[in-house]
Sequence to fold (403 residues):
Amino acid sequence: KRSSRAFDFGSYHTLDEIYSWMDTLVEDHPGLVSKIQIGQSYEGRDLLVLKFSTGGSARPAIWVDTGIHSREWISQATGVWTANKIAEEYGRDPSVTALLDNMDVFLEIIANPDGFVFTHSSDRLWRKTRSPNTGSHCLGVDPNRNWDAGFGGAGSSGDPCSDIYHGPFPHSEREVKAIVDFIRGHGNVKSVISIHSYSQMLLFPYGYTSVPSPDYQEMNELAKKAVSDLAAVYGTKYTFGSIADTIYTAAGTTVDWAYDQGVKYSFTLELRDTGRHGFLLPSSQILPTATETWPALLDIMVHVLEHPY
Amino acid sequence: QRQFQGDQVLRIMARDEEQAALLKMLEEQEELQVDFWRHPFGPGHPADLRVPFPSLGAVKGFLESHSFPYTVMIEDVQELLDEEKEAMARSRRV
Fold:
């Protein structure tokens, strides 16, 4: 059986390759990394989450998901690299060590496996889930408009053929419902970080309203530090702010739902934009993108550790 | 497997709210099959549109008739996809 060290982090991979690599990561780091299944996708694929934990029960936790929009391949690739980084840095990096000595991290690398497989097999530019829509020939729901947070509002569409179709009702998508059930069931998730591409942004609630959240100031300061530390690696400039202020009103998003559930530190990252490739970022950019994203992620995670609530 | 020969991605900068609203109208024209990679946030933010080859003339005509500044971000989407596929195959061989 291959070691996780033989894996090429600088290449894009299929679902099977990534799921297989997750097994080797678990085997290489017993006592730190385990794999849990939180549900099944519409097409019956396992929804798998890596759990990084040094013990304890129901410790405060950080949730990270990548690739809920299947065509954003750099997100899943960054998720793979990040999982490996967390495992390798425990016991080496004081911040990661302190974090995992006190908190758990859950990382769902392929948040939309049906869509991801479809991008490899049939349509590289597929974004949504693959569930059928009653009365329409168009498949799929935008899983980042399907959350119960201003559901159906501005920035989402009621047309099943649209790439921002919100779905028939909140959490209609199994991929979304699985995360909802997991976070609610866990009961002690303190941060949700949802990773997308590509606009070079670090965003926080709200998206469904332009009203500032009660924690706006703290989130803004944290985002400012995170994007500054990200830029220090390769000079990549990110913008930051609330979703509604920075881009546009977008209802039904992951981080708004998380925030309204009481998860204060809810952020969404939009990874690197070269201005030349969009969703088709060449694999040569995976390592630089993941590397520069790491300090921003770590800033957020350490802030969560140091600011219990 | 779906092919994207000749599809282009255009990066468009709306000058004002009026132009941003005009761009949104493109999305509603289903026959053009325009795929917004990045939505028009508003003036000062680029919008990226993948335009299928058969719609290129109509979309570029629309942009030019409304004096939108735009650049071609990707000349041929399929070329990038072919390169991506080859890079994956190369990695597997290694």
User: Anything to note?
Assistant: The first helix of chain A runs from residue 15 to 28. Chain A touches chain B through 26 residues (CB under 8 Å). The radius of gyration of chain A is 18 Å.
